[in-house]
Each structure stands twice: as structure tokens, then as C-alpha cells.
Recover the amino acids of this structure.
């Protein structure tokens, strides 16, 4: 896979403005329908060898997603991105726009236009507010890029994104069936993220088609992986080497992103009201907390998983506030939980992770042995 | 140096004790108990006769100030809560977990309703969700958009509509009708108290200053226990009057004040006395902090935002929802900081990088640079945690504070 910078450079050759969207769930369909190329700025590890520019602006106790994103935008944003989109996904991200502006200004370059939306963090009484935010965003995009909006084009974009999400779900099935590795699945999704949706579909279809001829891997202990981003490749490898198969996931950049699209909607505003209100539960969408444990338990059950592996993003307080309860509920249902934490500086800690993952796998195989007996 | 307790200090202790005991007493008699975030306007609940409000953040600060913060944090960590989470939240969750055995206020009565507010920090919602799950009580989220510039009309209307929804929810849960008159009266008690608070804070402009920031930190407590009551307004009048008298009499907390500093962040509750005394020995006085100056103002300013008799108090509360620094973008924060630096006369700024409060701290590196550039002031960044002393290195903090003072001195000589 090429790194994010190279892929965005490739995207730009098509002549359409590229909008870098801050995680986690930006209105991609809308931007695409207006002739823009939105990319979600996560999975930047390969493009960011260090965070020296970001470290002058962002405190070291911000998560690696924010620090890598800041580094990427400060170092490469002005020449690479034609716009930046933000919403109030978390407290750190909501503070980043002005930090990035300062970082970019420090090297006397021009900050790309910034677009901001407040996504209501409650279910009741907020639909009118969000509808207005979407209408304002459309106006701002029109004014900045001279593009137009139409409901027909929006419907076509929705259909394309839904097709891409459906393919992601089928690839997740393929991982569960053992015909695709989780690392391979994660890599495909990471590449797709920096493509136009039409090319995402082509890539995902080709990945799926490659799986069809693959030999099913021997049966393994099935686990669900959870976190904000997929585990780093070294951890994915360790999980699989330990004889565990990621039969499903509750990862924000993966399942939480592709699990849901509204089915019935009247116009673009309705679509996004339903999109955020009924979204697959995520720790960052505050109003979804009621539904989260049930949704996770459902994944564990429907995937016939034996255990749950939480790969936490260091300093992601959203995840860590919910983890004790989630862990308690899963354990109550007889699902063992392994919780490990990764941070930006953890590249050299593979052996520590290996020990913990191997020990967990042994514990699970011991349980299976006891069950068999 | 030990400072004698002032009249306002003694009054504060009584006021707080009465407030906490009053809450427990009324809850025991069947009052409807709300737990609210610090930015949730208490005046709304004063519009009901039989509703009491408790503020877990304030209780957590009190625990930290009384020296039990880290013990309470440990209890939460034993339940699986990460040490990286806000220490207020850990203290609150930890102290509740063992029935408030170490709480200086005998804890808080069990809530009937939780009201969080995501403008100061979204994590408050996650924190209150912990209680919602644990206690099975409803949780109302006040969703307040962040301000990169002055609050917009659409956001004001959105906040107002949520206040009305909250009132309707309390009416429906209690069976009591919201009393507009009671609410208006409470809002005016608060407004008068806040006017007196601003008067108290204005004595920081005097040289030497009539107060230290540590006095203002301690004196914030009634804002979370007694807002909307006559006692609230009376207390701050007493405080402002007393400071006025002391200034007139030439009595100052740091009489040999050589360095006037500004503190940027939440109070380090576990260090108030120690830090205040140690700095005073060096002739340094932290005279202002956005954390206390923002009270009674709008976003981007520390100027008073008064409530006059013709203004709808609910509108006034909604308009001032972004006052508390955290829900402001950097341009607004710098504007407010700049006005304090100029009006109060600041020689140096202490940026307290607080791991327990990312929202307050995450943009401080640029603030520090920009303030230094614009005002030519020496600044320093120290690591603190507002309530967990385990995450505070006294030696490292004082080393940097002393370096700041040397830097100020060097600037004067040069």
C-alpha cells in the first residue's frame, strides 16, 4: 500500500478538490455528491515518521490519532488538501482547527479553507439543529468551491457509499470465515480510505474476489477486536500467530463506520439526522451509549466469538470511560476480555504485547479444553 | 507564613457546611435530587420548590482540597477506570463506590436525575453515564456547541430550547410546575452575587494586589452550592467589602509583592496553601486566573455580563453558556487572557498543563507562544493535575516557577 500522502497526491490528479475530513464520521456522501473528494484523515501512521511539527502545538497527552493528524496537516496539508472538515467528534479534535492554523502559519503557508459542523450529541430535539448545520455546510462548500448540490446526485452518492459499506461487511464475513486475514482486511480498508468511493468499490470487490479462491484457514479461537483504529500490523500478526481469529470487530474506523447507512430518507438533511441518530454505537457519539453494550454483545454472539480483545488508544478517554462497564458486562456473559493499550511511542513494544496475547490465547485454549472435557 | 482566617473565610465555611447539610436534609425529606455539571445553571432548579442540585465536580474539588483526592482516585482505578481519566471523575466515581466513606461532606444524596453539559467537556457526559448505568436514573444531556467566535444566534436558540426541555422534564418527573417568579428571583440573586464577585476580583488590580488567586479559587465554592439564593449574594458582598477594607487599611496577602502572575488552568486543589505560601515567600503573587475571572462574563472576555431587570433570565443564562474558557476557541481565549494581562498588570504567565483537563490544556502551547510574542511577557509551562497529587511533581513545578521569576527579574534589569 502506498502511504496516505502518495495516495492523496494521486487523487488530486483527477482535478477535483480533496477535502481532508477529521475523524470519525464526516458527511462523506454529501461532499462526494458536490464533486469533491473527501478522505478521512486517520490511519496516517505510515505517512508520519515523527510528530516533530505537531509536538510544538499539541500536548503530548493527546492521542496518537490527533497528534499524527496534526503532524500530517501541518507538514503536508497546504499543498495536498484543498479543504479541511471538522465536527465535534471529541474534545481534542474540537480544539485542533486553530492549532493547525497556527502550525501552518508558522511556516508561512496558507491554511486550506476549514468547514465546521456541530453534530448534536443528543437524540431528542436536535434534528432541526442538525438539519440547519447540514444546510449551512452545503452553502459553505458551494461558496468555497463554486460547486452545486442536487438531491439526485446526493442519492447516487449515498448509493455508492452504501455499496462500499456493504462490501466492507462482506469482507468482515470473509475474515470471520478464515479466507482473509484481519491484517489483510485492515490494509484493504486503509487503502480504500484514500480513494474516491468508485475506486474504493473496485478495490473492495477485487479483494473479495481474491478471497473466493482462498483456502480456509484452520479453525481458530474466535475473538472480536475493538478500539478506535485497527491494531497496528505487528499486533494483528501477533493475534493471528497466537491462534486467534478476528471473527468480527467493533473498531471505530471499521465496523462502527460501515455497519450502518440510513435506508429511508427524504432529503439530505433527513439523511444526516438519521445517519448520526441511528449510527452504530460509538463511544464518541454520546447519545449512543445506551445501545452500545447490546450492540457489542450482539457482535460477540452473532460471530460466535469466544473472547473480546480491546486495543485501546492511549488517552482516548471516551473509550476508557466505557471500558470498565463493557468489560464487566462481557465477563458476566462469560466472554473473557483482553485489554491492551497502544500509543504513538509503542512501536518497539511488540514483545510485551506478544506475552500478553499469547497468555490470553493460552487461557482461552485452556477454557476450551475444560469445555471439551 | 500562616494567614489568619478572614471573616469571609469563616463565613464561607459556614455557608458550605449549611449548603451540604441542607442538601442532605432536604433529600432525606423527599426533595427531588439533581446531579448537574458545573455549567448547568442552578437557577433553573431554584424555579422548583422541592428540587435540590448537587455538583459532583465541586464535591471532587473539595475532596482534593481536603487531601483525599488521590485515595478516592485509587478506588476508581481499582474498578478499572484508567489513571489517564479526569481526576474529578475518578474521585467522584471512587468516593461513590464505597458509600462516601472518606468524603468531607458525607458525600452527595442519591440523584433522581443527572444533567450533564458537554460544553466544558464532553467527557462529563461519559462520566455521568457511568452513574446512569450504576443507579438507573435518567440522564439529560445539555448539548452546547463550542465557540470559535462569538456565540451564534442559532446556537443560542438551540441552548434555549434545551433549557425549556429540561424544565419540562423536571416538571414531568416531579409533578411540580416551574415557578417563573422563583426562577427570576434566583437569577437576580445570582446576578447580584456575581456583581459582588467581580468587585472582589477587581482588587487584583491594586498594587499590591488585594487578593491572591488562591483566595478566589477557594471562594468559588458557593457558585456550585448556593447560586440563586440570597445567601449567595450576601456572601460575595461580605467578601468584596472585607477585601475593600483590607486594601484601604493597607493589609495585603503578599505585602512585598514583586511579581504579579497569571495562572492559566483549573486550580491545583491539593496545592493551594503550599503554593500560595511558597510563592509569597518569594514575593510572587498569582493575582488572576481565567478560571475565576470568566465567572459572570461572556466568551472571549472577562468583562461583566450583567442581568438587568428587563432581560429574560433564561436567555441570559443561555447567552452566557460559553463563558467558562473550555468551550472557547483559541482566539477567544487569547482575547480574554490579553485583557486580564493588561487590566490587572501581569509580569508573567504560568500555563499549568493539566493532564486531567485536556480541554483546558490542549491549546496552551500556542497560547503560551502567542502571549509571549504579543505582550513580551515571560511565561512558563508546568505540569499539574487539578485533583490527583500523584501526578504533580512539586520539585519540578517550583524549579520552573523560580526560573520564571528569575526571567522576570532579568527582564527588569535589562
Amino acid at each position: 500500500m502506498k502511504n496516505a500522502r502518495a495516495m492523496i497526491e494521486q487523487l488530486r490528479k483527477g482535478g477535483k478538490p480533496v477535502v481532508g475530513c477529521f475523524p470519525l464520521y464526516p458527511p462523506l456522501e454529501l461532499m462526494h455528491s458536490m464533486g469533491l473528494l473527501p478522505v478521512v484523515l486517520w490511519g496516517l501512521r505510515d505517512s508520519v515518521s515523527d510528530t516533530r511539527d505537531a509536538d510544538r502545538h499539541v500536548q503530548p497527552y493527546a492521542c496518537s490519532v490527533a497528534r499524527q493528524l496534526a503532524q500530517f496537516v501541518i507538514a503536508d496539508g497546504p499543498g495536498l488538501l484543498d479543504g479541511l472538515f471538522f465536527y465535534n467528534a471529541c474534545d481534542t479534535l474540537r480544539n485542533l482547527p486553530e492549532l493547525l492554523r497556527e502550525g501552518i502559519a508558522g511556516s508561512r503557508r496558507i491554511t486550506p479553507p476549514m468547514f465546521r459542523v456541530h453534530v448534536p450529541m443528543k437524540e431528542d430535539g436536535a434534528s432541526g439543529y442538525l438539519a440547519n448545520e447540514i444546510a449551512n455546510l452545503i452553502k459553505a462548500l458551494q461558496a468555497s468551491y463554486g460547486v452545486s448540490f442536487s438531491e439526485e446526485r446526493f442519492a447516487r452518492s449515498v448509493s455508492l457509499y452504501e455499496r462500499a459499506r456493504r462490501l466492507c461487511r462482506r469482507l468482515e464475513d470473509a475474515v470471520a470465515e478464515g479466507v482473509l486475514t484481519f491484517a489483510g482486511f485492515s490494509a484493504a480498508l486503509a487503502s480504500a480510505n484514500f480513494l474516491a468511493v468508485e475506486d474504493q468499490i473496485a478495490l473492495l470487490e477485487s479483494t473479495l474476489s481474491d478471497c473466493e479462491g482462498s483456502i480456509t484457514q484452520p479453525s481458530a479461537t474466535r475473538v472480536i477486536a475493538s478500539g478506535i483504529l485497527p491494531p497496528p500490523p505487528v499486533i494483528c500478526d501477533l493475534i493471528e500467530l497466537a491462534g486467534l481469529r478476528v471473527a468480527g470487530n467493533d473498531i471505530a474506523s471499521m465496523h462502527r463506520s460501515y455497519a450502518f447507512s440510513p435506508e429511508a430518507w427524504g432529503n439530505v438533511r433527513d439523511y444526516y439526522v438519521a445517519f448520526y441518530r441511528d449510527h452504530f454505537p460509538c463511544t464518541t457519539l454520546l447519545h449512543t451509549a445506551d445501545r452500545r453494550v447490546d450492540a457489542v454483545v450482539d457482535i460477540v454472539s452473532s460471530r460466535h466469538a469466544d473472547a473480546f480483545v480491546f486495543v485501546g488508544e492511549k488517552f482516548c478517554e471516551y473509550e476508557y470511560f466505557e471500558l470498565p462497564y463493557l468489560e464487566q458486562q462481557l465477563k458476566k456473559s462469560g466472554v473473557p476480555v483482553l485489554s491492551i493499550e497502544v500509543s504513538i511511542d509503542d512501536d518497539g513494544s511488540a514483545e510485551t504485547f506478544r506475552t500478553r496475547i499469547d497468555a490470553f490465547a493460552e487461557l482461552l485454549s485452556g477454557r476450551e479444553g475444560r469445555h471439551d472435557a | 507564613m500562616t494567614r489568619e482566617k478572614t471573616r469571609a473565610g469563616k463565613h464561607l465555611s459556614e455557608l458550605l457546611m449549611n449548603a451540604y447539610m441542607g442538601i442532605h436534609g432536604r433529600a432525606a425529606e423527599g426533595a427531588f435530587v439533581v446531579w448537574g455539571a458545573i455549567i448547568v445553571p442552578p437557577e433553573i432548579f431554584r424555579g422548583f420548590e422541592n428540587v435540590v442540585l448537587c455538583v459532583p465536580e465541586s464535591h471532587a474539588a473539595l475532596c482534593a482540597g481536603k487531601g483525599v483526592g488521590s485515595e478516592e482516585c485509587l478506588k476508581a482505578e481499582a474498578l478499572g477506570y484508567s489513571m489517564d481519566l479526569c481526576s474529578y471523575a475518578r474521585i467522584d466515581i471512587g468516593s461513590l463506590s464505597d458509600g462516601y466513606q472518606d468524603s468531607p461532606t458525607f458525600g452527595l444524596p442519591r440523584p433522581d436525575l443527572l444533567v450533564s453539559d458537554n460544553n466544558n467537556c464532553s467527557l462529563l457526559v461519559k462520566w455521568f453515564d457511568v452513574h446512569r448505568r450504576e443507579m438507573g436514573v435518567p440522564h439529560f444531556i445539555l448539548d452546547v456547541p463550542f465557540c470559535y467566535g462569538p456565540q451564534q444566534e442559532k446556537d443560542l436558540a438551540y441552548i434555549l430550547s434545551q433549557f425549556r426541555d429540561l424544565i419540562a422534564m423536571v416538571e414531568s418527573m416531579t409533578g411540580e410546575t416551574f415557578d417563573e417568579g422563583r426562577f427570576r428571583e434566583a437569577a437576580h440573586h445570582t446576578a447580584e452575587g456575581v456583581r459582588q464577585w467581580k468587585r472582589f476580583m477587581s482588587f487584583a488590580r491594586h498594587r499590591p494586589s488585594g487578593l491572591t488567586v488562591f483566595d478566589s479559587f477557594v471562594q468559588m465554592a458557593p457558585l456550585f452550592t448556593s447560586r440563586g439564593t440570597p445567601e449567595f449574594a450576601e456572601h460575595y458582598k461580605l467578601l468584596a467589602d472585607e477585601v475593600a477594607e483590607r486594601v484601604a487599611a493597607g493589609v495585603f496577602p503578599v505585602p512585598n509583592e514583586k511579581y504579579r502572575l497569571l495562572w492559566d488552568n483549573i486550580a491545583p486543589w491539593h496545592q493551594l496553601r503550599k503554593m500560595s505560601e511558597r510563592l509569597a515567600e518569594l514575593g510572587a503573587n498569582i493575582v488572576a486566573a481565567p478560571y475565576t475571572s470568566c465567572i459572570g462574563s461572556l466568551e472571549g472576555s472577562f468583562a461583566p455580563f450583567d442581568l438587568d431587570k428587563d432581560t429574560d433570565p433564561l436567555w441570559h443564562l443561555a447567552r452566557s453558556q460559553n463563558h467558562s474558557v473550555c468551550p472557547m476557541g483559541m482566539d477567544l481565549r487569547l482575547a480574554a487572557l490579553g485583557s486580564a494581562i493588561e487590566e490587572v498588570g501581569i509580569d508573567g504567565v504560568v500555563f499549568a498543563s493539566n493532564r486531567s483537563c485536556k480541554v483546558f490544556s490542549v491549546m496552551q502551547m500556542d497560547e503560551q507562544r502567542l502571549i509571549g510574542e504579543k505582550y513580551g511577557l515571560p511565561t512558563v509551562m508546568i505540569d499539574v493535575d487539578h485533583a490527583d497529587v500523584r501526578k504533580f511533581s512539586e520539585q519540578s513545578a517550583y524549579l520552573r516557577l523560580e526560573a520564571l521569576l528569575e526571567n522576570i527579574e532579568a527582564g527588569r534589569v535589562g
